[in-house]
């Protein structure tokens, strides 16, 4: 018996006309939502990098997310830290551009406003309100 005759019997059992795509979408994993393209606008120009970093740290809501180098300079991106988990992240972000041709640093912000910010009163502030009344 040759191997070809064994394979002929094997392929007879397979239904080649059957479509393997399921109509039930509940089995497929949910698709990730693509973040819309953000529009960046230049907000401020600083003379030195120290001034720019000081301005970002004084706001106390930004954390460094990524940095990249290019011919124009070094770009350092910051994300809003208002939300604890990235899946609920605030769409607002900024970046500092350290220009390669000069010592100036520019601050750019997205057009997105801060979202999902819910401030819960802490026990200390709630207690202080009761004492003051």
> How far is the N terminus from the C terminus?
98 Å
Q: What is the class of the domain at 37-112 in the CATH system?
A: Mainly Beta
Low-confidence sequence ranges: 120-128
Radius of gyration from the alpha-carbon trace, in angstroms:
28 Å
Helix content: 10-25%
Identify the CATH architecture of the domain at 37-112. Answer: Single Sheet
Mean pLDDT: 75
Considering the protein shown, what is the CATH homologous superfamily of the domain at 37-112? WRKY domain
In short:
It is built from three helices and five strands.
Describe the structure.
By secondary structure, the chain is of the alpha+beta class. It has helices at residues 3-12, 49-59, 123-132, and strands at 40-46, 62-69, 73-80, 93-99, 105-110. It has a domain at 37-112: N-terminal domain of TfIIb, CATH 2.20.25.80. The protein has a 5-stranded antiparallel beta sheet with strand order 1-5-4-3-2, with helices on one face. It is extended and about 70 Å long.
Defining key terms:
extended; N-terminal domain of TfIIb; 5 strands; 27% strand; 133 residues; alpha+beta
Topology overview:
Elements: H1 3-12, E1 40-46, H2 49-59, E2 62-69, E3 73-80, E4 93-99, E5 105-110, H3 123-132
Antiparallel strand pairs: 1-5, 2-3, 3-4, 4-5
């Amino acid at each position: 018996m040759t191997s070809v005759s064994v394979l002929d019997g094997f392929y007879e059992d397979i239904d080649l006309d059957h479509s393997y795509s399921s109509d039930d979408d509940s089995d497929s994993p949910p698709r990730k939502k693509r973040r819309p393209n953000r529009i960046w606008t230049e907000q401020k120009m600083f003379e030195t990098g120290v001034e720019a970093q000081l301005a970002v740290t004084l706001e106390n809501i930004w954390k460094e997310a990524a940095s990249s180098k290019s011919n124009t300079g070094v770009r350092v991106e910051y994300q809003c830290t208002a939300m604890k988990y990235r899946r609920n992240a605030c769409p607002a972000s900024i970046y500092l551009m350290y220009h390669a041709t000069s010592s100036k640093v520019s601050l750019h912000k997205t057009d997105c406003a801060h979202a999902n910010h819910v401030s819960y009163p802490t026990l200390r502030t709630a207690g202080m309100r009761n004492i003051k009344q």
